[in-house]
Design goal:
Distance between the termini: 44 Å
Number of strands: 0
């Protein structure tokens, strides 16, 4: 039964990822923590592992073929993301789970307020 639920959560994240460029942080991590009982660190690591094949290939290719990818920009951001991901993953290992959950929630709140109230 869990396998089917995993697929459903993956579909929801994939649809949101394909539509809005979100999924890992806003769909997968809360689902992994609150539905499947993972720790915040486990959810973040699992989310990163999940995103490698589907987001990096199929959704990005669809956008690319429609002329909606700035490839030169994406390559440089990818390089920074690659290196930053390593350092971020190393740094976050030192945070206790309750503090990490709060920091993650504040981050999501700040982004949502900016998107709702910003220009």
């Amino acid at each position: 039964m869990n396998h089917l639920l995993y697929v459903v959560v993956g579909l929801a994240a994939g649809i949101c990822g394909g539509m809005f460029g979100i999924g890992g942080g806003t769909i997968l991590i809360p689902a992994l923590v609150y539905i499947f009982g993972l720790t915040q660190l486990q959810a973040q690591g699992t989310s990163l592992a999940i995103m490698i094949p589907p987001i990096g290939l199929l959704a990005a290719l669809r956008y690319y073929y429609s002329g909606n990818v700035k490839l030169s920009m994406a390559l440089f951001i990818c390089l920074g993301f690659f290196i930053g991901g390593f350092f971020g993953a190393s740094l976050v290992q030192k945070f206790p789970d309750p503090i990490l959950k709060k920091l993650f929630g504040v981050f999501l709140l700040a982004v949502s307020l900016k998107m709702i109230l910003g220009k």
